[in-house]
């Protein structure tokens, strides 16, 4: 039941996230001047630069273009997007640094000044923003003066409503969404490159009987079969996890009581103090099951509460349900110990874990010994080493044999013979050391644990066994 709930959640969330991403691409084509599909590729390897503006006329032309296209959305859009408000409001926010005298030498800790104003495009004609000069004059008239020496960010915020989305799957459901569109012109780096980005957060709303977004006094549509199935599965997953949690807590309570009574008995009648026998009485798998049940219960409750705005709670839900299902599946491994032919796997894992942890602690020290100089020395010359986190990811990818040639080829002799030779020596030493030495030692520890478990026939007797079996 838990697995079924996870599958339904994953299917629902992936469908809606995919819809939101496709709609976001549509908005970029609508509101960004000369937007190219090459900007929609994955960030690595980059096939093109960022979408940016470099001159005053380009900036104001792009700004006016976005406002004009928003004003024409209903007539231009192929998907039938409509304005959430008939007045077509756009909230414009300008963020600029404080004005300082040129001879000021002290640092100023004041935050940038943000000025926001809501414009109703229905009150203006398109001739006022027909080209970049008119757009610049229009913003001056609205009190949104831009000083590009202090300019940091400008954003346009507006909302659009989607048409009713008809699903043709088994339940024939209809959904409606409202998009909060955020167009940002970012000059935070103050390099002369103003980067344009657009994000559109979809919010599920209840469709009205007329096929538009429901108004305040308009009745809601009856729940669809799709929602009913999700509700039933979530309730069953919640109840089954709650029952499992209760049984595990009772079992844990009884085994802890038995452990305490056994310790007291041997200490009182035999004078033996039993040590390190807690997990001989309490099954460690109980803690795994309890952890999984708690996560599933929390995730199911969270999903039931946010059933109408699941996209906003997607990250929290994915953590709770995903990790909960992981622990549930791991807890199934306890049944492997019951079979004589498969219990060797878990015994090998248990035997090798202490040695692997000690080895990983030493390997991490060696790993970070390469990360820091790689980041500091190669960072200015190689995009994979540009930040600390990207350096971590790059070196870990090299250990797994990922994209080695590109890592080598990015730095050539044009960037200097010294950095070229250092990069080669650095990468050759790192790859040789970790692939041929560190990884082989890691595997050897597991093999040794397997051999010890396989050949061991006489178990070590604990204090409890000495007292009861001899």
Automatic annotation (TrEMBL):
Domain Mucolipin extracytosolic, chain residue ranges per copy: 17-195
Tagged with keyword Cell inner membrane = no
Please give the start and end residues of each transmembrane region: 235-256, 277-297, 317-336, 356-378, 425-447
**Pfam families in alphabetical order:** MCLN_ECD (PF21381), PKD_channel (PF08016)
Residue intervals of the Polycystin cation channel PKD1/PKD2 domain? 317-453
Signal peptide positions on this chain: 1-20
Protein's cellular compartments: Cell membrane; Endosome membrane
A molecular function GO annotation: NAADP-sensitive calcium-release channel activity
The record's Gene Ontology cellular component field reads: endosome membrane; lysosomal membrane; plasma membrane
**Which InterPro entries does the record match to this protein?**
MCLN_ECD (IPR049134), Mucolipin (IPR039031), PKD1_2_channel (IPR013122)
Show the catalytic activity.
Answer: Ca(2+)(in) = Ca(2+)(out)
> Mind listing the UniProt keywords for this protein, alphabetically?
Cell membrane, Disulfide bond, Endosome, Ion channel, Ion transport, Membrane, Signal, Transmembrane, Transmembrane helix, Transport
Q: How does it sit in the membrane?
A: Multi-pass membrane protein
- Note whether Transport occurs among the keywords: yes
Task: Name the domain of life.
Answer: Eukaryota
Note the PANTHER family from the entry. MUCOLIPIN, SD02261P
In Swiss-Prot or TrEMBL terms, this protein is called PKD_channel domain-containing protein
What is the species of this protein?
Hydatigena taeniaeformis
The organism's taxonomic lineage, starting at the top: Eukaryota, Metazoa, Spiralia, Lophotrochozoa, Platyhelminthes
């Amino acid at each position: 039941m838990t697995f079924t709930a996870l599958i339904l959640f994953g299917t629902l969330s992936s469908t809606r996230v995919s819809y939101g991403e496709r709609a976001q691409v549509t908005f970029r084509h609508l509101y960004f001047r000369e937007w190219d599909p090459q900007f929609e590729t994955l960030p690595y390897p980059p096939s093109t630069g960022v979408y940016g503006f470099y001159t005053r006329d380009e900036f104001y032309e792009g700004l006016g273009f976005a406002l004009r296209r928003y004003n024409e959305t209903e007539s231009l859009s192929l998907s039938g997007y409509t304005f959430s408000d008939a007045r077509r409001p756009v909230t414009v926010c300008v963020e600029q640094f404080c004005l300082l005298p040129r001879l000021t030498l002290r640092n100023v800790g004041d935050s940038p000044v943000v000025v926001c104003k809501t414009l109703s495009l229905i009150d203006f004609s398109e001739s006022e923003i027909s080209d970049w000069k008119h757009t610049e004059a229009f913003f001056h008239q609205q009190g949104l003066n831009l000083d590009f020496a202090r300019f940091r960010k400008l954003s346009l915020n507006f909302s659009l409503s989607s048409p009713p989305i008809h699903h043709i799957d088994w339940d024939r459901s209809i959904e409606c969404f409202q998009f909060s569109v955020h167009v940002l012109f970012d000059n935070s780096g103050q390099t002369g490159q103003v980067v344009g980005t657009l994000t559109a957060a979809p919010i599920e709303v209840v469709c009205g009987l007329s096929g538009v977004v429901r108004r305040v006094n308009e009745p809601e549509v009856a729940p669809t079969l799709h929602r009913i199935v999700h509700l039933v599965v979530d309730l069953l997953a919640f109840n089954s996890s709650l029952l499992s949690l209760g049984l595990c807590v009772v079992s844990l309570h009884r085994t802890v009581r038995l452990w305490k009574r056994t310790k007291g008995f041997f200490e009182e009648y035999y004078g033996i103090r039993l040590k390190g026998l807690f997990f001989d009485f309490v099954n460690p798998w109980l803690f795994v099951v309890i952890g999984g049940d708690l996560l599933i219960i929390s995730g199911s409750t969270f999903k039931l509460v946010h059933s109408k705005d699941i996209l906003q709670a997607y990250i929290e839900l994915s953590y709770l349900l995903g990790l909960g299902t992981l622990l549930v599946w791991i807890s199934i491994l306890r049944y492997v110990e019951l079979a004589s032919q498969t219990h060797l796997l878990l015994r090998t894992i248990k035997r090798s874990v202490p040695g692997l942890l000690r080895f990983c602690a030493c390997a991490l020290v060696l790993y970070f010994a390469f990360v820091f100089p790689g980041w500091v020395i190669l960072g200015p010359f190689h995009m994979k080493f540009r930040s600390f986190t990207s350096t971590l990811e790059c070196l870990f990818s090299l250990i797994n044999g990922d994209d080695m040639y590109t890592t080598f080829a990015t730095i050539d002799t044009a960037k200097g013979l010294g950095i070229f030779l250092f990069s080669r020596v650095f990468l050759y030493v790192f790859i040789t050391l970790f692939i041929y030495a560190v990884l082989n030692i890691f595997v050897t520890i597991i093999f040794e644990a397997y051999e010890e478990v396989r050949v061991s026939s006489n178990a070590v007797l604990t204090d409890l066994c000495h007292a009861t079996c001899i």
